[in-house]
């Protein structure tokens, strides 16, 4: 089932997500729905807050970018309760976009080398180091679990220059080829 993508400005994107337990109801269905939603929206990663759930769950299928980034080939996983550790390496600036900020992209500086610990769909633990573009995808999605979006990592001047675009997204004045959900209107006092 395709789920709506929550757009910039919705409070669910600003909340810190909670850990998942094996008792979470219909977890496999949620994972399957998130993959379906991600594919339909033509993304390579999707975090649970982007579908309205403040839980520590990410799905990634980096295969579509493997032609340009071979480290991404065949990398398809659901990550439960991921814990990210920044290792060494230079900060590298690359353009990023996000399904929750449609029609936008900005250069974002991120470290190249990380270590990730996560649980798979069977709640078995994994730990692996990543570099390159796959590292960037993981960092981008993990930011969502901390209530952050990539625009939080760009300069205040860039955010100011993009303010009207961000306001249009937050108020639903943007066209998407996938289902979306905007913030509820603010109540007048």
- What's the pLDDT, averaged over the residues? 95
Strand content: 15-25%
Number of domains: 1
The DSSP helix count reads 4
How would a textbook summarize the main sheet?
5 strands, antiparallel
Corresponding CATH architecture: Alpha-Beta Complex
CATH homologous superfamily annotation:
Peptide deformylase
Summed up, what is this model?
The protein is α+β, with helices and mostly antiparallel strands. It has four helices and nine strands. Strand 7 and strand 8 form a beta hairpin.
How would you describe this protein?
This protein has one domain (5-181): Peptide deformylase (Peptide Deformylase), CATH 3.90.45.10. The chain starts with a strand and ends in an 8-residue tail after the last strand. The longest helix has 14 residues, at 27-40. The protein is an alpha+beta fold and 189 residues long. Strand 7 (114-119) and strand 8 (125-130) form a beta hairpin. It is globular. The model has no long low-confidence stretch (mean pLDDT 95). A five-stranded antiparallel β-sheet has the order 2-3-4-7-8. A two-stranded parallel ribbon has the order 1-9. The protein has helices at residues 27-40, 132-145, 156-161, 163-170; strands at residues 5-6, 45-47, 57-61, 76-86, 91-96, 106-111, 114-119, 125-130, 180-181.
Keywords:
alpha+beta, five-stranded antiparallel sheet, globular, Peptide Deformylase, two-stranded parallel ribbon
SSE order and pairing:
Blueprint: E1 5-6, H1 27-40, E2 45-47, E3 57-61, E4 76-86, E5 91-96, E6 106-111, E7 114-119, E8 125-130, H2 132-145, H3 156-161, H4 163-170, E9 180-181
Parallel strand pairs: 1-9
Antiparallel strand pairs: 2-3, 3-4, 4-7, 5-6, 7-8
């Amino acid at each position: 089932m395709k789920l709506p993508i929550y757009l910039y400005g919705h409070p669910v994107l600003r909340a810190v997500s909670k850990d998942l337990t094996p008792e979470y109801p219909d977890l496999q269905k949620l994972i399957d729905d998130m993959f379906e939603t991600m594919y339909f929206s033509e993304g390579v990663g999707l975090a649970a807050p982007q579908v309205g759930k403040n839980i520590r769950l990410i799905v990634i299928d980096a295969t579509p970018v493997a032609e340009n980034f071979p480290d991404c080939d065949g990398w398809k996983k659901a990550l439960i309760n991921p814990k990210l550790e920044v290792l060494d390496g230079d900060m590298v600036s690359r353009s990023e976009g996000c399904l929750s900020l449609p029609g936008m992209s900005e250069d974002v500086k991120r470290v190249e080398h990380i270590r990730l610990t996560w649980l798979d769909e069977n709640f078995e633990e994994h730990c692996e180091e990543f570099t390159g573009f796959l590292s960037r995808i993981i960092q981008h999605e993990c930011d969502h679990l901390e209530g952050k979006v990539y625009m939080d990592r760009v300069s205040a001047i860039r955010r100011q220059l993009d303010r009207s675009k961000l306001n249009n997204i937050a108020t639903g004045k943007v066209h998407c080829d996938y289902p979306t959900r905007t913030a509820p209107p603010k109540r007048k006092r």
